[in-house]
Specification:
single chain, alpha+beta, 4 helices, 3 strands
């Protein structure tokens, strides 16, 4: 004989597993991905601040400019919110192709800043049993973003 299903109250038993799947598979990773987007923008901001500061000082003053921008960025709300750590923030001078400065006849130079920032996940899913074994950057462990930017050198070390 076939058992008849009741028309009321049976669906509530399916709610808990559905919510568990919804939270673990969709909601928590989505919140982490949005958080990583904010972290990426915060690291980009540090790179832009540093390249702007280094383009206006002499080459010998790059370390001071890098340190000042790193300190200013680390005390800002973006870095504090994203719990970001600076792995590398290094400026160097590179030639701009074969272009030559009309006034001096020397190759045109640009300042290049290489920045690496480590962002810790907002909600680390490393405690979830099946996610811990996957080692996904940004979801179960910190992720490192790398930025490289160039800007024309305004201070040519000649004056």
């Amino acid at each position: 004989m076939k058992a008849k299903r009741k028309s009321t109250g049976g669906q509530i038993a399916e709610l808990a597993p559905a919510l568990l799947i919804l939270f673990i598979v969709i909601l928590f990773p989505m919140v982490d991905i949005m958080y990583l987007g904010i972290g990426y923008c915060a690291g980009w901001y540090l790179n832009q601040m540093t390249v702007r500061a280094c383009s206006t000082v002499k080459t010998s003053e790059y370390p001071a400019a890098e340190a000042n921008m790193k300190t200013a960025w680390e005390s800002s709300g973006l870095a504090l919110f994203t719990r970001a750590g600076v792995v590398q923030n290094k400026a160097s001078t590179v030639n701009y192709g074969t272009s030559v400065d009309r006034e001096t006849g020397k190759p045109m130079q640009m300042v290049q800043v290489d920045t690496q920032v480590a962002i810790t996940p907002f909600l680390s899913l490393g405690g979830v049993p099946f996610m811990a074994a996957m080692n996904i950057d940004g979801l179960t462990r910190p992720i490192i973003f790398r930025y490289v930017d160039k800007r024309p050198l305004e201070e040519t070390n000649e004056n």
